[in-house]
Design brief:
single chain, alpha/beta, Arc Repressor Mutant, subunit A, Nucleotidyltransferase, domain 5, 5-stranded mixed beta sheet, globular, binds zinc ion
Length: 403
């Protein structure tokens, strides 16, 4: 059974239900109750679809107490997710019937800032190498790409204005597809099925998708905050990503926190990202330290030094946590999430950032928005490479773009 054939073509209501179940099981094996919740279908419809899929050898079931565990039968084809950052790229891959912990991953010290000709080639080669590790008869079956930019839900392309390092004409998913096809042609890979079309989305959106599938299934409103070089948020509401009319939903990094602050790449001024973006934190420390002391080599170095008692690094990280918390607290007053997950490189600082962040959320949000007895939690992300994992899920589940 080939993964790509399993995902192709669904006609009629019954076929669509079958397809929904297949896609839910591809993302994660689960019991029938969980499938009812994730697919949004009735329990009778799910039972009928599962029985039919089992008769056709597509899923396998196993009694689990009063419930039934449903998992995909072994399939051929590798699902790959790519998280393209500014300076580095993470690639994850697994066979669709494997679990998340069985993923293989690669981290490349190449990113969007390295320039398109460079990153596209390096990422395509790494994807090919990762897929070849699975051996025959497996081939690349699905591919998702996460980028730190807004993506229009209407077109699946960059929402304007296109910000550096990309240009107006940039289509990173198409560039990656062409490079993969060139590599395949050069290797003489004729006679095999054509390569899948990569699907593209914003990195924070995909982080939210991964968190909702793997860590917080069943939470109605999930806010995932990715605080790295850029700061962004993904919203998963009522079983699907909430992207906004033009893909701007969740642009937390461009919430204004200081009307007289620094100008921002987005054309705004005093955006949160200009204060607490990873590069900006390190630059600000450099301004303070000047040439007197060796400045921090990057955010990871700053976090290491804070942990060993460096007063400036500790203070800057605590303040960054506070600023982030104020912004999240304001969002909590508007969307009232059940769970806030903080990921990205700033979250690597753990309680140094998360502690002040929680305090600031409580100082900003209405009491009913954060009280623990309502089940509200603020947590550090536990899904390693959440945006890359979300990109992998995007490839498996397909997009919900409108056209
Ligand atoms: Zn901005």
């Amino acid at each position: 059974m080939r993964l790509r054939e399993l995902l192709s073509g669904a006609r009629g209501a019954k076929q669509e239900n079958r397809q929904k179940i297949i896609r839910a099981v591809l993302s994660r094996a689960g019991n029938q109750t969980d499938l009812v919740r994730r697919s949004g279908m009735s329990s009778a419809t799910v039972s009928e679809a599962v029985r039919e899929l089992e008769r056709n050898g597509i899923v396998r079931t196993e009694k689990q107490g009063r419930d039934t565990l449903v998992r995909l039968a072994p399939v051929e084809g590798v699902a790959v997710g790519v998280e393209l950052g500014y300076q580095k790229t993470v690639i994850v891959g697994r066979l669709a019937h494997q679990e998340r912990h069985e993923c293989v991953s690669r981290t490349l010290q190449v990113g969007a800032s390295s320039g398109e000709t460079h990153w596209v080639r390096a990422v395509a080669v790494a994807v090919q190498e990762l897929v070849s590790e699975f051996g025959e008869p497996h081939d690349l079956a699905t591919l998702g790409l996460a980028v730190p930019r807004m993506i229009s839900p209407r077109t699946g392309r960059f929402a304007p204005p296109t910000l550096p390092p990309w240009e107006k004409e940039s289509v990173p998913d198409v560039s990656l597809a062409e490079e993969l096809a060139d590599l395949r042609a050069a290797a003489g890979g004729g006679g095999r099925p054509s390569l899948p079309r990569p699907l593209l989305d914003n990195d924070a959106n995909l982080g939210a998708l991964a968190e909702s599938v793997y860590a917080h299934s069943g939470r109605e409103i999930l806010l995932y905050v990715k605080a790295s070089t850029g700061v962004g948020a993904g919203l998963f509401v009522g079983g699907r990503l909430f992207r906004g009319a033009n893909g701007v939903a969740g642009e937390l990094g461009h919430v204004m926190v200081d009307p007289n602050g620094r100008f921002c790449l987005c054309g705004g001024r005093g955006c949160l990202e200009t204060l607490i973006g990873a590069d900006r934190l390190v630059d600000r420390a450099r301004l303070v330290l000047g040439d007197k002391i060796t400045a921090y080599r990057g955010l990871a170095d700053m976090i290491d030094k804070a942990r060993t008692g460096d007063a400036l690094a500790g203070r800057m990280l605590r303040e960054a946590g506070t600023q982030l918390g104020y912004a999240i607290g304001n969002v909590c007053n508007i969307i009232n999430p059940n769970v806030v997950v903080v990921g990205g490189s700033l979250a690597q600082a753990g309680s140094l950032v998360l502690g002040p962040c929680r305090d600031a959320i409580e100082a900003t949000a209405m009491t009913a928005a954060y009280e623990a007895d309502t089940g509200f939690v603020v947590e550090a992300s536990t899904v390693e490479h959440a945006s890359a994992q979300g990109a992998l899920l995007l490839g498996l589940e397909g997009t919900t773009y409108r056209d």
